[in-house]
Every structure is written in structure tokens, then in C-alpha cells.
Amino acid sequence: MSDSDLPHLNYLNENELMEMDTFIHRIDSTEVIYQPRRKRAKLIGKYLMGDLLGEGSYGKVKEMLDSETLCRRAVKILKKKKLRRIPNGEANVKKEIQLLRRLQHKNVIQLVDVLYNEEKQKIYPLA
């Protein structure tokens, strides 16, 4: 392959590089200030999504705020796709929801609501 076969490449000469110096500035990493992006509020039903409380093999547990009563709740977010990979995963979750609905005890969490997002295939049992 000869030089004429190669596509034409433009290289910057030294003068052009010096002119570009006005556009490109080197800074020390200590000068960089990290500012995390603010998350948008996520509303699911009447509940406002909060911070992550924990994570397990079945899903994540997040804090939620009931917008009507202003009570703090915990929600276990379960993905159907993930449950299908766990042996008896879907059956275990259905059983847990049935048991928590019937169970009334001061030392056991109380199931308040169960939400299901068909589009995202997510189950939200609220305690």
C-alpha cells in the first residue's frame, strides 16, 4: 500500500497547536469539584420514592413517603425477570405477600399496599 492509497490526514502544525492552547486548558485534579447530579423526585401512585435502605437477592428496599399521610414506609422493589431466575422465586413472593396480608402482630412489619408496574415488570409491596 502506497502513501497515495491512504486517506488524506490533516496534521496540525506547531503554530496551530499553540493557537489551540487558548481552548484547551490543563487543570490539576485538586481543582475539580465534584457535584453529584440531583435526582428527580419519583412518584409511584401516592408514594414518593426515597433513598436506598438495602439490597438482597430478591430486590432492593427503598424508603417511600406517603404523600397523603406523610408516613414513612419501606418498599421492596422486585423485578419479575430477576424472580424468574431464582428457583420458586415468584411463588415465594406471592406466598410472602399472602402471609403478610393476614399477619397482624406488633413485632412484625405490616403490609400496607402492593403495587405492580406492568410496563417495567416490577412489584412494589409496601410495608
UniProtKB/TrEMBL annotation:
Amino acids binding ATP: K76
- Which superkingdom is the protein from? Eukaryota
Write out the catalysed reaction. L-seryl-[protein] + ATP = O-phospho-L-seryl-[protein] + ADP + H(+); L-threonyl-[protein] + ATP = O-phospho-L-threonyl-[protein] + ADP + H(+)
What general EC class does the enzyme of this chain belong to?
A: transferase
Task: List the cofactors.
Answer: Mg(2+); Mn(2+)
Which GO molecular function entries does the Swiss-Prot or TrEMBL record give? kinase activity
**Domain Protein kinase as annotated: residue spans:** 47-127
Magnesium: is it a keyword of this entry?
Answer: yes
Record bears the keyword Transmembrane: no
E.C. number(s) listed in UniProt:
2.7.11.1
Q: Which PROSITE patterns match?
A: PROTEIN_KINASE_ATP, PROTEIN_KINASE_DOM
InterPro entries referenced in this protein's UniProt entry, alphabetically: Kinase-like_dom_sf, Prot_kinase_dom, Protein_kinase_ATP_BS
Q: Which UniProt keywords apply?
A: ATP-binding, Kinase, Magnesium, Manganese, Metal-binding, Nucleotide-binding, Serine/threonine-protein kinase, Transferase
The protein's matches in PANTHER family, at most eight in alphabetical order, are given as: MAP/MICROTUBULE AFFINITY-REGULATING KINASE, NON-SPECIFIC SERINE_THREONINE PROTEIN KINASE
Protein name per its UniProtKB record: non-specific serine/threonine protein kinase
Organism of origin: Ameca splendens
* UniProt lineage: Eukaryota, Metazoa, Chordata, Craniata, Vertebrata
